[in-house]
Design goal:
By secondary structure, the chain is of the alpha/beta class. The chain folds into 2 domains: about 325 residues, Glycoside hydrolase, family 3, N-terminal domain (TIM Barrel, Alpha-Beta Barrel), CATH 3.20.20; about 130 residues, Rossmann fold. It has 15 helices and 15 strands. The strands form 3 sheets. The chain has a 6-stranded mixed sheet, with helices on both faces. A 5-stranded parallel sheet has the order 1-9-8-7-6. A 4-stranded parallel sheet has the order 2-3-4-5. β13, α14 and β14 form a beta-alpha-beta unit. α5 packs parallel to α7 and α13 runs parallel beside α15. The chain is globular, with a radius of gyration of 23 Å.
Amino acid sequence: MTTSLARLAFPALRWRPSGGGFDHERAKIDAALAAGVGGFIIFGGTRDAVGALTRDLRQGAGRPLLIGADLERGVAQQVQGMTELPPAAALGFLGDLEATRTAGVITGSEARTLGINWAFGPVCDLDLEPKNPIVQTRSFGSEPLRVGEHAAAWLQGLQEHGVLGCAKHYPGHGRTLRDSHETLPRVTTPRAELLAIDGAPFEHALRAGVGSVMSAFVAYPDWDPSGRAASFSPIILGHLREALGFAGFVVTDALIMAGATARETEPSATVSAVAAGCDALLYPEDFRAVAAALDRAVGSAIPQTRADEALAHGEQAAAQWGGGADQGEPDLVAHGAFADGLADRALLLHREDPPWLRAPLGVHVVDDDVGGPYTVGPRDVFHQTVREAGVAVRAGKGEREKGTSVVLVYAEPRSWKGRADLGVRSLSALRRLVPGAALVVLFAHPRLVPQISGDGPVLCAWHGQPLMQRAAARWVLNRIR
């Protein structure tokens, strides 16, 4: 083959909500298409803007492209106007495999109509480490069988509706104490234990026919004593190919993550990744430098046979999944009703049943997710839902002479957040607010409940996304007399 290894690169395109949409990415798009990249990763946008963008990309390329996105919680995780779904932990808690499969169907059918044909999911990591700052509610749970069954169900629903799935983060990110966005984590668990426990959900995904696997920027020194991350380890990726028999598309995680460049610069790291067995390089910051480094390395650091194999895997994936939208319009009303039903079922009350609540509601927000490189999602959907039902809300005023005080706590797994527990400021605010509150609503993992002071009722809503805020508001409205 003579195709440039630029075909292995997948640059990111980010929506600017403040104006211009994707217009600021035009120079990048033109240069990437001219270089011959394999596709793109989309972050953000409206339904119309993303649909127009993907059509434009394919027309400009004149060939099939893989256009991917992080859609763990449904297409609305990235694209406004589409359907939100609960996080994997809530689906695992429900234990309803048919519901999880339907979540995959909804994700696949909606993504495909927008021209997105690659979803970076399901998460096959196990929720094993309470101090893990990045997995948490993104995992279906801690039991290998349950996680594997749910991952397979979600994946089958997704791929049956024309979207390539991606099992991540092989061979398992669930035991890390650090976030691979900010460093290179090390997991010292013995190889045999990793294979038997952490590897089990990935084997479920493979048996279900997953088309791609995302390797982790995590080191496993008992498996590969060199200390290289899995994405750069011929030993670890070799097990995936040879022992597990995976012949599909092996990809890196996002190259902007510190775990990717902990030992090498981005161009050098991508050469190491391809040489080790990766077929696709996600989110390079400088795709031109990456492509040039890869092409220079063919025949030396990257054997010609490995280069040809990587290109062939990419061509096969693009041929199978790379077409544009070819399905009818999704029934967004029905999808939304299904998602609301799941969200209502997933709410989990801890400690004790709260007393009947009284209007007006004094609602206080403790946001543990402020700061970091990305803005948080809306934090007023709960308030709006309650007000739309005719109940007055006094946001954070602290009135205790009448009505009921409710505290909302937001604490999601977020890139570069760097911790799993509530922060010092949040804990201080809770000590001040909880004694006067009738209810705390926790938009986070249930394991954070013990960090909330007192012994009053805590309603776990799993994640701060609008879907779960609305579900929590409906629950509260049903308790108001």
